[in-house]
Amino acid sequence: MTRIATLSETRDNCHNCRLRTLCLPDNLPVEDVGRLAGIVQRRKPVSRGTLLFQAGQRFNSIYAVRTGAVKTTTLMANGDEHISGFHLPGEVIGLDAIVSRDHPSTAVALETASVCEIPYAELENLSDRTPALQHQLMRIMSRELLAEQSTNHLLTRRSAEQRLAVVLLTFSERFASRGLSAQRFRLPMSRLDLGNYLGLVPETMSRTFRRLEEQGLVSIAGKEVEIVDICAMQGLAFGAQGAQAARA
């Protein structure tokens, strides 16, 4: 039986962390991994709803998610909260504050989660002496920027069904990169949060999930999702040519 993707496995440190290849370069020497581990502050697990940092707070650290999941939010001009991203184990948050030195977003635990806090001043000093680590920082920043731009582009001018299909396929890829099932996984966020991210009201979210089920594309049980027909999902999300490229 295929194991449903979950986000609750524990990690001990940078040396034996199963997510190391997502956070660190493969060629980073053992001694440099040890130096990095020396500045990483491993926080105790936090409960759902706990703030990691708030918009406007002075930037001091970046954070790598170890277990669980985190959402980032921003305030719109009308005062409404907009969810700007969902972050899984192995992903780094807080990078958007490096330039301004103040956090432009708020990070909140979606469920019980643990993170590694990495003081940025110490990380900069270490990366100056460790070229491989400096290159990895640039790679991480580029990866996060490209992922955000790609998702925003895919969600633009698409129907509710297409937007939901895009996001479910994106989560499928992200879980697969962690050695978990690409077809059966548990979403860490509520439908309300997912609708906020997609710009869909709750009623539209419910109808959209139901339509995908009626088309035989997915099977939904609470937060657990099974992509039944991944080729058809890709066709819905990306069109015929995009789906062919996604399978290539």
TrEMBL record:
Residues 24-107 form the Cyclic nucleotide-binding domain. It comes from Modicisalibacter zincidurans. Keywords: DNA-binding, Transcription, Transcription regulation. InterPro entries: cNMP-bd_dom, cNMP-bd_dom_sf, Env_Response_Regulators, HTH_CRP, RmlC-like_jellyroll, WH-like_DNA-bd_sf, WH_DNA-bd_sf. Residues 158-231 form the HTH crp-type domain. It comes from the Bacteria. It holds the Pfam family cNMP_binding. This is Transcriptional regulator Anr. Signal peptide: none annotated.
